[in-house]
Design goal:
Order of helices and strands: HEEEEHEEHH
Largest sheet: 6 strands, antiparallel
Strand order of the largest sheet: 1-2-3-4-6-5
Structural class: alpha+beta
Shape: globular
Number of strands: 6
Radius of gyration: 14 Å
Number of helices: 4
Length: about 130
């Protein structure tokens, strides 16, 4: 998990996952939803080397990750530091964990960012 294509390989198959560049032409934002309502679940600056991926996590999980990978997982860059972490994709964090974090962020956002009716309308999963 070191390239944008690697990230797309995880995010693209997720139901109603969208790729956008809402801030500038460098910041790739993965969202879940549709054009009229969507929620961000991951973002990266496509020009950075190595890539740094920000994902939403439960606060306790974020703390655990920062303790386990102090050089590679830090509080979310330009995001709510309690609910987001930024992971440096240099190989120091296992690929399976990065995949888990992306899917977990997606699920967290679908559960908390949409009402039950909206989730049903979009056919958003409760689990992956």
């Amino acid at each position: 998990m070191r390239t944008v294509e690697d990230l797309r390989g995880v995010c693209d198959p997720l139901p109603h996952s969208l790729e956008t560049f809402p801030f500038d032409d460098q910041t790739l934002v993965f969202k879940v939803g549709h054009l009229t309502k969507s929620r961000m679940y991951a973002l990266t600056d496509v020009t950075q080397e190595p890539l740094r991926l920000s994902v939403k996590v439960d606060p306790e999980r974020g703390h655990e990750l920062r303790q386990a990978y102090p050089q590679s997982v830090v509080p979310g860059h330009h995001l709510n530091k309690k609910h987001w972490v930024t992971v440096t994709l240099d190989g120091s964090v296992p690929d399976d964990l990065v995949r888990e974090l992306l899917r977990g962020s997606y699920l967290l956002v679908t559960k908390k960012g949409f009402t039950k009716a909206e989730r049903a309308e979009l056919g958003l999963p409760g689990s992956l």
